[in-house]
Amino acid sequence: MEELDLLKKDWNKNNPFPQLQEMDIYKMLHKKSSSIVKWILIISILEVTLWTAISFCFNTDEYLIKNHSEFMIPYFKVLTVVNFIVTAVFIYLFYKNYRTISATNATKKLMADIVRTRRTVKYYVGYNLGMMVLSAISGFVMAIMVNPKIQELSHNTKAMVIAVIIMIVFLLIFFGVAALFYYLIYGTLMKRLYRNYNELKKIDL
């Protein structure tokens, strides 16, 4: 934000063209906001690509068939399709937000676009974390129901309790790492957008 700070300092001096300075600051904030939203779009696409590639490394159907639990295959297929559709909708919204912000030429409109983008990202992060929890719980239940090794532990209460505690700890660590990833990546971008929003608010006063 060094360039913006310099413009603001110059703006505060006795300047015969305050409207020109205001427009310069707006253009810089517009460019920065557009760039941030573009990165949100790129990161979300890379994220989906990564998870899709990882999913190809695991054959859930084969695992369920091997353990005579074919009845669970439709559930996981529906979950996968729903997740794909919802994620595709979010990526489309990110793309739409990027196109809208790039074409915006009014301060109030840009502020409204930033608010909408921040809201969309919050929903996206919340959905992904929620889906991770649901998938983890599903995997946890599946392991208890169909994994022969875990089923053998059901006859030993103490061993079963230890196994469940280990799974829960693993899930909490996984969720914590995922939440930290979203906070560092999307959270940082959201802070920058919010900073731009506050600067635009000062211009609009």
Question: Into which percentage range does the β-strand content fall?
Answer: under 5%
Largest sheet: none
Which outline best applies?
elongated
- Global Rg: 24 Å
Extended strand count? 0
Query: Low-confidence segments, ≥5 residues, pLDDT <50?
Result: none
Between the first and last Cα atoms, what is the distance in angstroms?
21 Å
Helix content: over 70%
Structural class given helices, strands, pairing?
mainly alpha
Order of helical and strand elements: HHHHHHH
Q: What is the overall number of helices?
A: 7
Please state the average pLDDT score: 80
Description:
By secondary structure, this protein is an all-alpha fold. Helix content is 88%, strand content 0%. The longest helix is centred in the last third of the chain and has 48 residues.
Short description:
The protein has 7 helices and no strands. By secondary structure, the chain is mainly α. The longest helix has 48 residues, at 157-204.
Keywords:
mainly alpha; elongated; 205 residues; 7 helices
Question: What are the SSEs and their pairings?
Answer:
Blueprint: H1 2-12, H2 18-55, H3 60-66, H4 73-103, H5 107-146, H6 148-153, H7 157-204
Helix pairs in contact: 1-2, 2-4, 2-5, 2-7, 4-5, 5-7
